[in-house]
Amino acid sequence: MPGRTLTGWVFDVIPHASGMTVWFRAEAGETLALAAPFRPSFTLAGRRLREAALRPAAQRWQCDVAPGEGIEFFSGKTMPAWTLTVPSPALLATTVREAEHAFGAEALFNADIAPEQQFSFATGLYPLSRAQVECAPDGTILSSRVLDDPWDIDAPWPAVTTAFLKAEGTGHPAHGRMRPLLFAADGRTHVLLWEDGGRFLRDFQKLLADADPDLLVTEYGDDYIMPRMLALAAKHRAPFLIGRDPRAAAGRDSGGGEIRRSRERSYVSYGQVIFRAAPHLLTGRWHVDARNSFLFGETGMPGLFELCRLSGIALQRMARSSPGTAISAMEVALALRRGILVPYKKREPEEFKSGADLVTTDKGGLTYLPRPGLHEKTGELDFASMYPALMARYNISPETINCACCGKNAPGGRPGTPVPEIGAHTCARRRGLIPETLAPILEKRRLLKERQKAALAPESRDFFRKRQTALKWILVVSFGFLGYKNARFGRIEAHEAVTAWGREMLLRAKEIAEREGFFFLHGLTDAVWVEREGAAEEDYLELAERIGTETGMPIALEGVYRWLAFLPSKRNPSVGVPNRFVGAFADGEIKARGIAMRRSDTPPFITAFQRALLAKMAEAEDVAALREMLPELKEMAGDAALALREGRLPPEALAVSRRLSKAPERYVANTVAAAVTRELCGRGVTLRPGSKIRYLLTVEGSRTAASRPGRNANAETRGRAIGFLDGSESPDLARYEEMLREAADEVLCLVEAR
Asked: How far apart are CA 256 and CA 516, in angstroms?
């Protein structure tokens, strides 16, 4: 490659023995592998640490040592620090472990920041940044200049070509009989048969080479397709070329060397066990597994692009990370810019609290119990990103809550900002790390939402919607991370301060609404539902403006409902449930919470029926019209039951989904899900905690009797894995009819009531 100057985008950054490979997408369309010498580093710090002990250890590890100082996060005090530069990115993790063994985790800082992110922080070449690079003839980057800013709303993004790869049919391809692989690119779909072996590999690689996509989107690529293709290549001793690595193309690398793999994992998130398959990352090309990426499903590529640019995390890893990983990376980047030493592990313990203290401080968000019933012309007002906005406004951060420099016991009596109810304060002297991280995110999301609203073309609206949704998710998790027990920048006292301010804001909103003559129907954490006879949309907008002005918190009108139903508890029909309601806005859009179609285990035909029922109900302009269409709604329920009884629904439509909460061998009870788990394992399917299984509810007993409502009393509900059905199964129609009836009753019970 001749020496030249290139303008384009940072496509990917991958560590290698002597530095980084920067995959660069030039404006002309070519994707080039450039070399960038780089040595990562970490820090040892502490007042008890002595340079005389540190330097011999650093010499053993072949690290360069640079003395300096850093700021301790919680106290804000400066302390001596030594930066150790590691010979190679490949040696960083090993060296950090040795340093931890030698000096203890409490002496380690800036120690678990990935080399790619360190490179981004050091050079400014963040993922998908537009840049100009000067290269030597051998492709080594001599100098670089970033041409945009991650906070730009209209920064140009590279054009990306895409190919799609999935197994034919639906569901996890490993949980059933072998299915052909579909490769789609340039408007054409090709069928590949696993049974063809070596021909399968040759055909796939030719299709991939001809399409040459920048992005390969798969379904179950990490968990099934990539491992299976690698195993097939090993069996046939064939090279497996799937990336753009020039070494592989030249025959110097084969057998999947272009694929970077890491470990699979199961973890608990908000009480749910989640399984993440082992990532299979490509070289010079992106691979996104749509089934192994929460963010891709929620935000698509525009959202991933947005988070990559803000967090400094490369796209393939960002796709497989949580929103919390993105916000944590942004906090780390800001800490480094401010000279704050980033703790290797959480250091700050929770303060001791008595039982009485916990009753006062640990209340969570404010929640009302709505009275079950139907309402019309009801307005819903939502605080915009309430908790992050409170953190930014009131300077709530782990190092600012109950700081020693403010409060009644502080030297000089400098007052802090008191937190309502709980007797805490936040610092009035220094700006917290968390608020400073969140403030520009809040502002950028506001601007993106404005652009979304103003956009005329549907594609433009969708583009801005996905980007602001990505920011919404990192704002949502920022609050959870603030109280997460293992978060480096987490502290439960700060978490409690946020909820205390949240309760205060909701109470203020209620008081203002009632003062303005509105009847308060319901309040839930960051939203209120109010109504006033004769009120129009303009009245609700004025109320939102008044609340925003008086509280200093942004609040917006979510919409005015044609009709709104607060649903009762299933156990006690006279008691409402805070997060269980259904309503139709003025434009016909349905908002539903806590009903069957919102649950992941609901069979598709039940979900489709309930959606169709609500779509019909959305046509009603008011409660009276809604009640008039009750006979038609009941007829829809009858038609759905008839389709079920007549066998017009395929097994896929009846599939029940369950997520395993523990290892398969621990399912010993005689439940349907346990039986299906054992069936799948017996067929050689590998299941882990967090894996999803799908099955058909069947009956065991008299087949003739069980096929009718009021089945044989001796018939027993069983389950069969959807992927291994052979046509001999008898669906448990009685159980499915019961589920259908419950789904109809959920939304019709209040329409029927007078």
From this structure: 67
**Residue 405 confidence class, pLDDT cut points 50, 70, 90:** confident
Query: What would the pLDDT profile of 559-570 be if each residue is shown by its tens digit?
Result: 999 999 999 988
The 3-class SS string of 527-548 reads EEEEECCCCCHHHHHHHHHHHH
**231 or 239, which is more confident:** 231
Q: Which residue matches tokens 């509810």?
A: 697
DSSP tag of 5: E
Angle (deg, nearest 10), helices 458-483 and 433-454: 160
Please list the residues that pair with 261 across neighbouring strands: 280
Beta bridge partners of 584: 563, 590
- Position 467 scores a pLDDT of 98
Output the DSSP codes for 397-453: -TTTBT-TTSSTTSGGG---EEPTTT--EE-SSS--HHHHHHHHHHHHHHHHHHHHH
Residue 686: both structure tokens together = 């590998």
What amino acid is encoded at 596 in this protein? A
| Token digits of residue 43 | 């820090």
Whole-number pLDDT of residue 266:
86
Give the Cα separation of 132 and 330 in Å (integer).
24
What are the structural domains of the chain?
A: 4-146 (3.30.342.10), 162-337 (3.30.420), 346-431+489-587 (3.90.1600.10), 653-733 (1.10.132.60)
- Which amino acid does the sequence have at 65? V
CA–CA separation, 452 vs 416, rounded Å? 39
Structure-token pair, residue 184 = 């789609």
- How far is residue 571 from each of residues 59, 139, 542, 567, measured CA to CA in Å? 69, 69, 39, 12
* Cα 345 to Cα 484: distance, rounded to the nearest angstrom: 13
721 near 679, Cβ under 8 Å?
A: yes
When mean pLDDT is compared across 108-112, 535-539, 708-712, the lowest value belongs to: 708-712
- Helix axis angle for 458-483 and 492-515, nearest 10°, is 120
Specify the 3-state DSSP secondary structure of 25.
strand
pLDDT one-digit tens code per residue, 303-324: 999 999 999 999 999 999 999 9
Mean pLDDT of 346-375: 63
In this structure, which long-range contacts are made by residues 575-580, counting pairs with CB atoms below 8 Å and at least 24 apart in sequence?
A: 575/369, 575/372, 576/369, 576/370, 576/371, 576/372, 576/522, 577/369, 578/367, 578/368, 578/369, 578/370, 578/522, 578/524, 579/524
Distance separating alpha carbons of residues 575 and 268, to the nearest angstrom? 31
Question: What interhelical angle do 604-617 and 733-752 show, nearest 10?
Answer: 20
SS (H, E, C) 249-299: HCCCCCCCCCCEECCCEEEEECCEEEEECCCEECCCCEEEEHHHCHHHHHH
Separation CA 538–CA 535 (nearest Å): 8
Question: What one-character-per-residue DSSP string does 596-607 give?
Answer: GGGSTTS-HHHH
Q: Where are the alpha helices (DSSP H) in 578-682?
A: 604-617, 623-628, 630-645, 672-682
